[in-house]
Fold this sequence. Notes:
Elements: E1 10-12, H1 14-17, E2 24-26, E3 30-33, E4 46-48, E5 51-58, E6 61-65, E7 68-72, E8 76-80, E9 85-91, E10 96-102, H2 104-110, H3 114-126, E11 129-131, H4 134-152, H5 159-186, H6 191-213, H7 217-235, H8 240-246, H9 252-263, H10 267-272
Parallel strand pairs: 1-4
Antiparallel strand pairs: 2-3, 3-10, 4-9, 5-8, 5-10, 6-7, 6-9, 8-11
Amino acid sequence: MKTTKHHHIVDITLEEAKTWKEAKYMDNGLVLTDHIADAPIPQTPARMNFSLMALCQQGTATYDIDTRQQTVKPGDLLFISEGHIVNNYQASSDFSCLCILVSTAYYHSFVQNVKNVSSLLLFSMNNPVVALTPREIEVYTNYYRVIGEKILDTRHHYQDELVKTWLLAMFYDMSNVIWRVDQNEKKAQSRADIVFSRFIRLLYLSEVVKEVSKRTPNDWIDHYVILEIRVLLKNSTKSIKEITEELNFPNQSFLGKYFKEHVGVSPLAYRKH
């Protein structure tokens, strides 16, 4: 009888990454390292508790992200978003990358535009490895060098602001890579891909709404639908049937059950009260 070997998923944290060989870091959520080959990456499934962007300089590596195998070679830019599972990591002895690791909180501290945040998230899910042009390689390398210098300049009064400014500028330059790849993909994108992308955007928006407001999108919808019904019941002479049709409920019974579930009384009792 064939048995399946199960591995416990371990977490790789940003605090651990700070101890990697010659790592440069900001205490509030940023690490730079170009010695990823020396990092003690587990051979068992590992969950990333940070987001990673890295440019491969030499050598090759293979690994799985959420069971999907990826291969990295020189000139490739790789993305791994926080929370994803990395497994079966193998790298050549000369593998070298310019790695930037950021916590989600730190990422949101310098990227405020929700559209831009979601675009990188979607891009990393659909394109975890991207081949850069020679110019894009040069741009990334220059940003990495400057940001590393700013991290070491601890006596600068505005160090945190400077680092975040350079990271934001780098983000917009890398977003240009997203735009370039997206244009090429749209030409060959299937209907299924388009539907999936829209689904992921809605899913991400749902998470952002919940994080910011502490309510789910459904909670907000229910809140405003019930508010509208309350207003129509108290401030209009429209019948329950007319309100049902105006708010696109399938029938009066459905509206009645929905209203009572959220308010505690029937629409008619609420109007009379």
